[in-house]
Please model this.
Amino acid sequence: MKIFREGQIEFQNCTIEVTKKACEWIELDQANYQLTIRQYMEDEATRKQVMQKDQEVRAALDAKDITEPEDKIIAASKFKFKRDMDMFRKLQSLKFTMAPQAQQEIQGIELSKTSDALTIEYGFDLAYLTQASRHYNLENNEELKGFRKLVIAQKESEEKAEFDRAQPPQEIIDALVAEGKLIGDPQYKQDGTMTFDYFLETSKIVTRYTMKQTQTGLAEQAILRRAAIKANNEEEFQKLVLSTANWEQLTNTLIQANLYQALKVPKQVFEKSAQVYLMDPDKRTIYEEEIQALRDSLRDRPAADLTREQILDSVRKLEQAKFEAQKKMYEFVRS
Model:
């Protein structure tokens, strides 16, 4: 990952320098150029044109004579499809726990790894495979069409299984909607957001039903995670952490969507309200304190009597874990 980031930084620095020189050569103010490109990239149609032209230029620069036989290119394409499926699974496991920008970086790393794997396995990289696929018109190859359909069907099946696992049963949704309607019609402000009180009360309902829906599953996953830690199986532990976090977040998202849809609150209104209130320090403090108080009230696990030594040991382990997490974040930022 460090090597990939260093390469990306060098590429960006090179792009900035070349852009600067190009603006000088054609006597174009660089600030004007940046404003223009920003305007074009904000429009979907012109953004696609710019990206298409960028791909065409890259393809032209990477162009090579196609000397590999068609059957080898077909085999390499299947190899790539399988790796694409692995990349999809990895990105799916990160979609609720990693920022979009970081996910894009992971995708770039995985594509680089695929290109390297192609070079090792077949003697050519991803750019050559793309060019060769166009050369042999493999988009219309019946064998690859069938293989691609199998990969897509598997992907859709895994997505559906993940969705079905997180989807609350109808009786839960009915109870959720009924409770939501008890607080009355949505209350809006002139800036297009919900009132803070309405936003907070609906958020409490979402939190309450999310906890009800996930409580048993989270307890089961906690047992599995602790078993993985005890067995020093870090890979299994990380896998369980990500899958549990994704399931809990998807469940929350589905409950949230069902409630606001029933209350006829548009998605963009909820998103704007969340952004406005959670960026306001005072409102965010109230929100977090109220939600935490609700979470605490819903926990029904009995308190355990601990000795002084057990408490001190627990605090020590907690602080050590927090320190290790801070070190990882620091290394991530530095790199």
